[in-house]
Amino acid sequence: MTACLTHCHRSLALLVSSYKESHLQISPVEPTRMTQDQLKQAVAQAAVDFILPKLDDKSIVGVGTGSTANCFIDALAQHKGAFDGAVASSEATAARLKGHGIPVYELNTVSDLEFYVDGADESDEHLNLIKGGGAALTREKIVAAVAKTFICIADGSKLVPVLGAFPLPVEVIPMARSHVARALVKLGGDPVYREGVLTDNGNIILDVHNMNITNPVELEAQINNIVGVVTNGLFAARSADLLLLGTQEGVMTLKR
Ligand code: 5RP
After folding, report:
1. N or C: which end of the chain has fewer CB within 10 A?
2. Does the Cβ of 155 fall within 6 Å of ligand 1?
3. Distance from CA of residue 88 to its chain's centroid?
4. Topology of domain 168-231, per CATH?
5. How far is the CA of 97 from the centre of ligand 1 (A)?
6. What are the residue boundaries of the structural domains of the chain, listed by start?
């Protein structure tokens, strides 16, 4: 009986293998590709791992705005006891932090901010950024200015050779909209009013298409000099110090 079973197994195995050879094309197994959301979660976790050993119960963390920053908030919330609280770059971020039970401080009451962690719409290899896709650019720029270390977290699609494929957001006092738009045209751009959006500061956004951004530091200053502009989404005068980039090969770190 045992011999028969063994013999039957062998015959079945032979049958299966000859069937596979004649009917199936076996292709090499593709490694699973991470989705954009998974890449965002990976860089968010990498940022938490980077700052955590440097935090203590008095530390306050600056937190940015957007889907990648949201992943960072969710990962940071797992370590609530390791720091005191956060400063938020938008009302949406403040609400998410509070939802996790993380105390949110007004920036004016905070004298020492070691880290600011935020996403970006684009980064070049020098860590000059375009930000403001979520209309929070002014508060983001203020918190970044105060922080000692600005850590930018982004999925790999955000790294570009030259900034500007993403339209450059400019926050504008509402009554200056047409004046600023004309000045932006003179600088070579095509400004488009972001319909239905008011910033947390009560202002409007012009998204500037087709801008030639070969000198981001100079262009940032030029645009900020237009009367009626609150600020623009170029983070070049104060670029990021560290870029954590989520790629299929793992999290890459770029330093200035
Ligand atoms: C908001 C921002 C965001 O950092 C930027 O838009 C990137 O967002 P996301 O992480 O959702 O891609 O500047 O004003």
Report:
1. N
2. no
3. 15
4. Alpha-Beta Plaits (3.30.70)
5. 17
6. 36-160+236-255, 168-231
Residue by residue, DSSP assigns 14-70 as: HHHHHHHHHH--PPPPPPPPPPHHHHHHHHHHHHHHHHGGG--TT-EEEE--SHHHH
Residue from 123, 251, 68, 101 nearest 89 by CA: 68
Burial class of residue 142 (count of CB atoms within 10 Å of its CB; 0-12, 13-18, 19+): middle
- Of the residues 121, 143, 170, 243, which should be mutated to test ligand 1's pocket, given the most ligand atoms within 8 Å of the CB? 121
CA distance 46 to 54: 14
Mean pLDDT across the chain: 91
Write down the pTM of the prediction. 0.88
CATH for 36-160+236-255 (2.140.10.10, 3.40.50.1360, 3.20.20.370, 3.30.40.10): 3.40.50.1360
